[in-house]
């Protein structure tokens, strides 16, 4: 009995019980405790379920020097005093010059271990705990601090500060913070907040975060503040922020991901920075507002307030017009007029007099708005089009209306649509914005029209570069670029594009665009390495844009086999699981399983369906199909109005414009179901992206998407027993580490061979 207890204590020596953004805790049992385990000799994670209460991160970046302060609160809910180590992984290639740590107000010395020493500790933890999760940090250094005592039923407060020198590559400066803690957290972190203050010391251009949805506030030409807040967080990825310093008019930041012998992925972000008012291009803008009877009440009141906000925030050299419409359309001036105090007051009085009455004559409203453009003008011409209904007067059919827009429209015209409510033809509004390279916005009944319109206008009121084109020189060949057409660039804003590329080495990127009707060119020399596998979020973001674009093509222009096949392939490979893509995958896998083209063990979503007999009742796949491709796979059967159509439009646009991983996850809340044991599950769970593709967890076994997509039935398979000497030999291959960290049962492809790790 004593020997068994000793074995249990040894196994529990490095039991991972909880973790926090930035670091995690290895807890050891009390010397006087009598640990027990459901399985003799195996650690029981429920013994020490530490809870994370909050994580607060404040970072100050001055030039290339970043000082990060972290405050964490965690709680020991057990009735025992515990002992452990706090480990803080040091990001690869990061040089930390200072590291201080307080535990409950008392300073503690932290031991810095280089990557070699840290690797030995990580490996020892894996051997003793028989848990491979910490391999995530294999090859990285760490700071280690002993924590004792961890008092029972008590909060513990940890504060640490460190300074690092940031790395600059291709003109882009990167800041990274370790937040990939999902494997260790007993519960989601209740509250997480980030505040990052940047003082570039030079003109700050691009600032963006591709991993999390953040708020960016510009404070002059050199400074910005980045904020992020969330509750009940179970983060599965590190926080990454990128920015560049450039005294030229336009800043360009380039990131890339490339595996050997494969086409690469690139991510470009363009921004003029905060800019000066003299950089703003004078524009012509027409505000078109539906005043039909259905707009009566709060809708019209909010729309009028929004319109007044827009008028009051016009730039001094702008020209404008207002076109209200119902049964007929009318206008304030008859053409665009200069923005000045007298015309501003006329507009405010005109807006105040608008009353709701009549039907919805979209045809006449568009005719009047587009005819307000001055002949031969080279100014950007924007139309803000607000409506709450389908056309009921004049031309009411979708295709003839679109042909009219195409006939009148010119290259410098952008029609931004605002659909109010749910009684709308989303296909009409979406095709108008698509054909004019603009954006669509929908305002649901419980949302504020004034807030939506004013928020949009605040970002889009000051164009600095329009009709933008990006070209690479002959050293690099690019393909599959999204957006297909780049939107205009506004003061204080940014745009991004992603694509695939062949080639490597130095390349010149030329960005051109119109400034006051004259095409200007900006050139940037970048270096695309032949191998760069650090930024493996880029393929996932690119795939999200590709799938979003293809779904819009299916929804707006009709389904065909080629589009469906490509959406299914991309969704499988990159884990883009939406209600519609999951339907396509399940349908494809059912056929593949029936025909014997794919082994049951190589299916990614079908095992979940087989374990959920009520899946089709829990998830309304029919509704998703009806909205995107039509129940009979025909455009005439598609649902073009109602809340479902609006939701689908918003989700596909969000994916098509995704600049962070949060935007790539659309419709997840509609993928919930119960398995055959009655447990609440979600089709999107158990999916992580590693080295540019998805890994799927089914029945506690991880499967590489590349295995599912591979058609070679004779591919070599290497079986490796977990925790064996062959397993630790495999750990010497750096490419295998990320896969091994997933668990004890993992099947993945490497060097055109399958590796099957098993217990």
TrEMBL record:
Matches recorded under InterPro entries: VIT, VWF_A, vWFA_dom_sf
UniProt biased composition (Polar residues): 643-661
Domain VWFA: 284-460
SUPFAM superfamilies noted in UniProt: vWA-like
Pfam families: VIT, VWA_3
The organism of origin for this protein: uncultured Aureispira sp
Disordered, as annotated region: 630-661
VIT domain sequence ranges: 36-164
Superkingdom of origin: Bacteria
Protein name stated in the entry: Uncharacterized protein
PANTHER family for the chain: VON WILLEBRAND FACTOR A DOMAIN-CONTAINING PROTEIN 5A (PTHR45737:SF6)
């Amino acid at each position: 009995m004593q020997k068994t207890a000793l074995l249990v204590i040894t196994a529990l020596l490095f039991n991972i019980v909880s973790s926090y953004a930035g670091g995690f805790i290895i807890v050891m049992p009390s010397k006087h405790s009598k640990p027990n385990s459901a399985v003799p000799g195996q650690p029981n994670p429920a013994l020490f379920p530490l809870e994370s209460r909050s994580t607060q991160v404040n970072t100050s970046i001055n030039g290339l020097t970043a000082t990060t302060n972290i405050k964490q609160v965690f709680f020991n809910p057990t009735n025992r005093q515990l002992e452990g180590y706090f480990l803080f992984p040091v990001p690869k290639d990061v040089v930390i010059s200072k590291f201080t740590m307080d535990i409950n107000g008392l300073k503690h010395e932290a031991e810095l271990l280089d990557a070699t020493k840290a690797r030995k500790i990580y490996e020892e933890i894996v051997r003793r705990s028989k848990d491979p999760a910490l391999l995530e940090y294999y090859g990285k250094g760490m700071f280690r601090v002993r924590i004792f005592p961890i008092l029972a039923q008590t909060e513990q407060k940890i504060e640490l500060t460190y300074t690092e020198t940031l790395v600059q590559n291709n003109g882009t400066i990167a800041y990274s913070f370790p937040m990939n803690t999902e494997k260790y957290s007993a519960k989601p972190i209740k509250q997480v907040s980030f505040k990052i203050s940047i003082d570039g010391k030079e003109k700050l251009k691009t600032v963006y975060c591709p991993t999390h949805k953040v708020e960016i506030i510009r404070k002059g030409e050199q400074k910005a503040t980045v904020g992020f807040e969330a509750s009940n967080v179970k983060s599965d990825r590190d926080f990454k922020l990128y920015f560049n310093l450039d005294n030229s008019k336009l800043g360009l930041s380039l990131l890339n991901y490339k595996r050997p012998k494969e086409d690469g992925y690139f991510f470009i972000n363009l921004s003029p920075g905060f800019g000066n008012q003299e950089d703003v291009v004078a524009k012509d803008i027409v505000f078109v507002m539906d005043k039909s009877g259905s707009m009566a009440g709060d809708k019209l009141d909010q729309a009028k307030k929004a319109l007044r906000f827009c008028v009051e925030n016009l730039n001094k050299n702008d020209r404008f017009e207002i076109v209200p419409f119902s049964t007929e359309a009318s206008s304030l001036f008859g053409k665009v007029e200069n923005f000045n105090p007298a015309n501003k007051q006329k507009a405010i009085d005109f807006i105040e007099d608008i009353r709701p009455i009549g039907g919805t004559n979209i045809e006449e409203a568009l005719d009047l708005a587009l005819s307000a453009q001055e002949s031969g003008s080279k100014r950007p011409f924007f139309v803000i089009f607000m409506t709450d209904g389908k056309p009921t007067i004049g031309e009411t059919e979708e295709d003839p209306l679109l042909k009219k827009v195409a006939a009148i429209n010119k290259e410098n015209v952008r029609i931004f649509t605002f659909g109010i409510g749910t009684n709308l033809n989303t296909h009409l509004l979406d095709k108008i914005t698509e054909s004019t390279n603009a954006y669509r916005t929908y305002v649901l009944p419980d949302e504020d029209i004034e807030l939506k319109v004013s928020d949009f206008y605040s970002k889009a009121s000051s164009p600095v570069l329009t009709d933008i084109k990006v070209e690479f020189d002959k050293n690099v060949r690019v393909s599959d670029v999204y957006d297909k057409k780049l939107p205009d660039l506004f003061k204080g804003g940014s745009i991004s594009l992603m694509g695939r590329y062949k080639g490597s080495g130095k390349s010149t990127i030329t960005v051109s665009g119109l400034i006051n009707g004259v095409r200007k060119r900006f050139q940037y020399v970048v270096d695309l390495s032949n191998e760069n596998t650090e930024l493996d979020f880029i393929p996932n973001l690119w795939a999200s844009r590709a799938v979003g674009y293809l779904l819009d093509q299916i929804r707006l222009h009709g389904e065909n086999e080629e589009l469906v096949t490509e959406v299914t392939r991309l969704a499988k490979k990159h884990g883009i699981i939406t209600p519609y893509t999951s339907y396509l995958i399940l349908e494809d896998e059912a056929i593949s399983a029936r025909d014997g083209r794919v082994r049951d063990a190589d299916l990614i979503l079908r095992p979940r369906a087989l374990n959920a007999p009520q899946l089709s009742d829990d998830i309304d796949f029919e509704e998703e199909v009806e909205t995107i491709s039509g129940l009979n796979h025909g455009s005439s059967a598609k649902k073009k109005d109602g809340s479902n159509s609006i939701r689908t439009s918003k989700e596909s646009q969000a994916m098509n414009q995704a600049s962070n991983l949060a935007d790539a996850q659309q419709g997840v809340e509609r993928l919930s179901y119960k398995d055959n044991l009655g447990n609440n599950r979600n089709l999107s769970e158990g999916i992580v992206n590693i080295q540019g593709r998805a890994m799927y967890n089914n029945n506690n076994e991880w499967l590489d998407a590349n295995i599912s997509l591979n058609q070679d039935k004779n591919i070599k398979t290497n079986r490796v027993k977990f925790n064996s000497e062959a397993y630790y030999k495999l750990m010497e291959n750096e490419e295998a580490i990320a896969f091994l960290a997933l668990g004890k049962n993992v099947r993945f492809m490497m060097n055109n061979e399958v590796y099957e790790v098993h217990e």
